[in-house]
Amino acid sequence: MVFGPLDPSGSDGLPADAVTCARLGCHGLAAVTALTVRDTAGIEEIHPVSPDLLDDQARCLLEDMSVQAIKVGGLYTAETASVAAQVAADYSQVPLVLHLGQRAQPPDNAADEDEADDLLAATLELVLPQTDLLVIEHLRLAQWHADGDIDIGDAPSPMHALVAAGAEWVLVLGSPQRPGHYANMLLGPNGQTSSLPWQAPPDRNGDAGGVAATAIAAMLARGLEMPEAVRQGLAHADASIAASFLPGMGRRIPNRIQPQ
């Protein structure tokens, strides 16, 4: 099951995630968090659904079918984050992958900034403790740290602080290792760290993390253990992004149906 926005361009969101799930042998279910107006260049409008509607969508499906994994991405209000957290808590036996996306644009005004702060607080306080794997890009995590949005306390790094805050595993994409060298870093519940290859996306590429998060969730649904699910999910994402195409005047779209 995927919690996410409806992207009419197919660049990201639920239509794209459905293709990834099908390509990896899974049947994807959708809980729509928002309707968007967008093309391949970017988003023009976001219309979040009501918390009650999101809750009804998810529970109607979960009471009908056996779900093997949940991916959460594209939460736009603190209230919908609370719904996702409660659903996850009620189905705690199902592994949950939380994708927090690329570095966010600065809010336009004080009201938007307050809403963004509330959403981040709800996500970290409510959803993160239910999370089996958090997928986040290094630039966004660095932004949070620089802005003081997360307090690492005595933790050796921001990713360690996220594990301490409740995530069982944390995957940081595009983490700098030394000048000119990057890696995907996976941190586990016992402090074990793995460095996995990172492939720079082509120019004008969209959000690479969404492909990876969905692919990993599909691998977990198929019964793989976390480290192997991450390895295979990242390999699928890298291949999809390497084969990306340019259908319009905006960004490239990962080729989610590329041959294995």
UniProtKB/TrEMBL annotation:
Domain Pyridoxamine kinase/Phosphomethylpyrimidine kinase, residue spans: 7-250
Record bears the keyword Transferase: yes
Keyword Transcription: no
One of the record's GO molecular function terms: hydroxymethylpyrimidine kinase activity
Pfam entry (one): Phos_pyr_kin
Domain of life from the UniProt record: Bacteria
EC number: 2.7.1.49, 2.7.4.7
Protein name: Bifunctional hydroxymethylpyrimidine kinase/phosphomethylpyrimidine kinase
Lineage: Bacteria, Pseudomonadati, Pseudomonadota, Betaproteobacteria, Burkholderiales
